């Protein structure tokens, strides 16, 4: 019976997700201009797979909890998802876990992807070579971020290897100005980053970490274009979402 109920919920959520995607035509699944790295350089980075296919990026914040973007898992059937850790290349098996529970803020709004964050509780703790956790952001005044993912390096060419790009932060006033004609609200749960010169997160990097001084400060959320000269990338603000994350961990 529980299986049937979960299937029904998944079908309803899937149709809602498709409808929302039609309303939101920006490239919400958004590393261009970055460099290839090894997982040993970012042991907290995991990838999320749906029915065995790569879908999004995540960050291991405890051995049993992963932070990613809400739009990566919203409308997905929980049993179809797995988290893979300890891999540099997507073809590697690594250490895999299924997902026990998915937590998304009740105020998550799609569109415009406000509070675009999810915490995944894993079926069991993740341990192994090249696997570790990252602490949540407790610093302010960041002037750059390191962003990680397996997303596209060009519009037509996905990366099969983990990559990293360093992007500068963008002031809130400049961010608001960039999107003033875009008919979208940049909320306190968001911040902007990118140098507007072909260095950015891109399609497939959704949910990926934006890291400053070894702390998880942002999550790749959305952007109208990859490495646009007009629009910066938009990230979920971990400082703003910290209470939600910590409450989930305590459950």
From TrEMBL:
The keyword Translocase does not apply. CDD domains: Tryp_SPc. It comes from the Eukaryota. Residues 1-20 form the signal peptide. PROSITE patterns: TRYPSIN_DOM, TRYPSIN_HIS. Pfam families: Trypsin. Keywords: Disulfide bond, Hydrolase, Protease, Serine protease, Signal. Residues 31-250 form the Peptidase S1 domain. Coiled coil: none annotated. GO terms for biological process: proteolysis. One of its GO terms (molecular function) is serine-type endopeptidase activity. The keyword Hydrolase applies. Gene3D superfamilies: Trypsin-like serine proteases. PANTHER family: AT26814P-RELATED (PTHR24276:SF91), POLYSERASE-RELATED (PTHR24276). Belongs to the peptidase S1 family. This is Peptidase S1 domain-containing protein. It comes from Stomoxys calcitrans (Stable fly). The gene is 106086591.
